[in-house]
Amino acid sequence: MNKKLPLTGPSFEPHKDPNKLIFLLHGYGDNADNFITLAKGLYDSKNKINFYAPNAPTPIQQYPTGRQWFDLYPNGINFNEAGPEEKKILIEDCRSSLSLIQDYIKLKSNSFKLLYKDCFILGFSQGAMMAFEAGKYINEVFSGCILLSGRILPSKNHKKDSFIKTPIIVIHGTNDNVLEPKYFDEACSILENHKYSFESYLLKDVEHTISQKTIDLTAKFIKKNL
User: Fold this and answer.
1) From edge to edge, which strands make up the β-sheet containing 20-25?
2) Contacts of 167 (CB under 8 A, 6+ apart)
3) pLDDT tens, 191-215?
4) Distance, CA of 107 to CA of 136 (rounded, Å)
């Protein structure tokens, strides 16, 4: 696997001295220049929040401008059908991206003398998978973790002493045919079984997208956990 470079990407910084930061992790095949537009939908001038959208570290051959946090097809095999060798590749790929996400969050938060507890991690689709994994990997209390149209990756170790105190919101659409609603149910079961504090919303007739209802629920969650 090629060595991954430090993460970079666009930002929306309306404040010189923010007291909260939101990190936006885009989905598979998307890019940060496109995803940073979500910040405008979540921005509230009453709150001193800056937004940061890093590009996933690896390009995707079939998507000229698309990026990925980990390869969905290690050795050409769908990761849902991965054998031991593919799972090893997948784990290494994820961990290297998680390390870069941690470095990126630390860089931005340190520049404002802020801590993990002052940061939200938001992810869509594959970015949602990474948002939850990043919380586990860093194992600190965040302001919140926002999982949009994603899933929680299979793991034998979900309970983390510090991250488990982070408020979490899970939002999914009933008509999502990319990541079916069964992954919403699975994520809620994992969070409930491991005693995470979370709220969840399955939105009727919403597909694999960020709807206005999703934005409204996310903005409400952020406001509640400032």
Assistant:
1) 11-12, 49-52, 20-25, 119-124, 144-148, 168-173, 198-203
2) 143, 144, 145, 197, 198, 221, 224, 225
3) 999 999 999 999 999 999 999 999 9
4) 19
Coil, helix or strand for 36?
coil
Question: Cβ(60)–Cβ(29) under 8 Å?
Answer: yes
The partner residues of 11 in beta bridges, in order of sequence, read 52
Please give the model's pTM, rounded to 2 decimal places.
0.96
Quickly count: other Cβ atoms within 10 Å of residue 103's Cβ.
13
Residue 158: its pLDDT value, please?
A: 67
Residue 1 pLDDT: 44
User: How distant is the alpha carbon of residue 84 from its chain centre?
Assistant: 26
In this prediction, residue 69 has a pLDDT band, given cuts at 50, 70 and 90, of very high
Question: Helix or strand or coil: residue 14?
Answer: coil
